[in-house]
Amino acid sequence: MKKTILFTTAVTAMFFIACNSNSSTKDNNTGMNQDSITMQQNTQPDKDIKMVAATFTSVDPAVAAYIKTLVTDYLSIKNALVNSNGTAAAAASGKMYEAMKSFDKSLLSADQKKVYDDIESDLKEHAEHISKSKIDHQREHFATMSKDMYDMVKAFGAGMTLYHDHCPMYSDGSMWLSETKDIKNPFYGDKMMTCGSVEEMMK
Q1: Is residue 3 included in any domain, yes or no?
Q2: Is residue 20 part of a domain?
Q3: Which of 34, 46, 154, 196 pairs as cysteine with 167 (C-beta 3.0–4.6 A)?
Q4: Domain that holds residue 129
Q5: What is the pLDDT of residues 142-194, one digit of tens each?
Q6: pTM of the prediction?
């Protein structure tokens, strides 16, 4: 029994150490401990963070409004998971799923449609799963949904400034998008709220 408790304590400590460790192989934006991440959030100007511009510079206004709706629903899911609120995450995912079902793809150019179609089915699947799952499973789908949303925003823009954040701990490293530079981890909530770093800024 004592060995089991000791092992569990050691594993937990390793998780916290890994999250807070400073990797010499990363640059100053991504390889820092928790204290310096907090400092960066408060002091580092946006101009010092790598910028990512949208691929498509000419997007139909209705498409731009639709993508912004998806982003807003995505951020609602993210914030619900930060607060460990599975019910709110499910509701926001349901809204995203319904919005995707009613989108008029004829508004897209041929190039835009090809990119959108490559993302749509996976994004819709994750939204549907999150709307019907418990929080642990929601977080699993959110990790993959975040990659899809990153690709969507990188292609079409978001209609707002977003930050691409990275958590080194969850599922061997997972990313998410946030509307603020402050790190609020959706994969662990208040267990490891500030675990992560800002990778990029997207406008």
Answers
A1: no
A2: no
A3: 196
A4: 34-202
A5: 999 999 999 999 999 999 999 999 999 999 999 999 999 999 999 999 999 99
A6: 0.80
* Distance separating alpha carbons of residues 12 and 16, to the nearest angstrom: 7
Task: Give the whole-angstrom CA distance, residue 185 versus residue 197.
Answer: 10
Distances (CA, A) of 64 to 26, 36, 158: 34, 36, 7
Q: Is residue 7 part of a domain?
A: no
Determine the residue type at 135. I
Residue 198 lies in a domain: yes
Question: pLDDT digit string (tens) for 8-50?
Answer: 334 344 444 456 443 333 333 333 343 333 333 434 566 678 9
For strand 162-167 and strand 197-202, is the pairing parallel, antiparallel, or unpaired?
A: antiparallel
